[in-house]
Amino acid sequence: MGIAVDESVDDVRPWVDGISFPVLLDRDRAFCDQFGVINVPTVIWLDEQRSVVRPNAPAFADDTFVEFHGVPSAPHHEALRRWVLDEIAPMDEERVIATRHRPSADEQLARAHFRLATWLLRAGLTDQAANELATAGSLAPNDFTIRRAGLALVGDDPFGQKFFDLYEDWKQRTGGAYYDGD
Amino acid sequence: MTDITVSVLRDAIENDVAGRLTTDGRVFIAADDLEAATGWHLDRPGLCQGEICVPTPLAATAIDAGEVDLASVAGALRLPQATWVDAFAPRAVTAWGRSADDVAMLNGGRSAPDVTLPTLDGNEMAVLEQDGRKRLLLALASW
What we know:
- The structure holds 2 protein chains of 2 kinds.
- By secondary structure, chain A is mainly alpha-helical.
- Chain A has helices at about 10-15, 30-35, 65-70, 75-85, 95-100, 105-120, 125-140, 145-155, 160-175; strands spanning about 1-5, 25, 40-45, 50-60.
- In chain A, α6 runs antiparallel to α7.
- The longest helix of chain A has 18 residues, at about 105-120.
- Chain B is α+β, with helices and mostly antiparallel strands.
- In chain B, about 20% of the residues lie in helices and about 40% in strands.
- Chain B has 4 helices and 12 strands.
- The longest helix of chain B is centred in the middle third of the chain and has 9 residues, at about 55-65.
- The chains are: A mainly alpha, B alpha+beta.
- Chains A and B meet through β1, α1, β2, α2 and β3 of A and β8, β9, α4 and β12 of B.
- β1 of chain A pairs parallel with β12 of chain B.
């Protein structure tokens, strides 16, 4: 199941053309907030009983951009095959529990500011929205669902120079790890 | 005090109620409107929602006064909040988030939170639908 961390259906459609599984829209970040998702693509594995089998982690369909993000696609595909075909869990339960993303108070406060920002944007109050986005971004500098999405929301290019600057800073801070367990 | 419209945002929910803005920028709403605005209501011992009550002295004070300072409610519930006020509109908008502890509890052990979202066709679906099957949740974006 896909969850599009985007503002509108129109933003998402070009990216999900031809996809057969359901895609839901998380414009207000209820999913990201509750699942602790701070970047995309993030994959979460759930078993038949709704338990998390593999917590938040980046995973890519192919290696088109592997030199950029450093996450080869093959290990994930292989682990998936082993789980689906042979019932081999990708990690033991203790590791699942230990690795789940637990946000800080600042990250949670950032989301409140982000939510306010989207209300202001939708009301046409773009300067005020930009203020709230800036506050959110400084509280949660590693949250790309705020910082990179925020660029797109104010009309900047999320693939442009501002993104590259943001990306370089992020890489310095995190070593390129999306989540703590990476 | 200025009479204003107050909007409380929680995820996709927006509730609008009448309120008042003090000269020092505090937003008050009628005690009776708290539940409609936030899902929490006032009982003598504290703030309650469903089976849960959070003890706080502000509840009895608010019941007696007939009104309550919204920011203090969020504070008592330990919820992150972000507020914007425009005294000229006149409007106040406050977004309430989830506390880090609440998120940690939702993700305690191996449990997955259930979240219902709109589909691209405008219907609704729970992310935990499709019980009985292995599934992947894939968060993606146009950015």
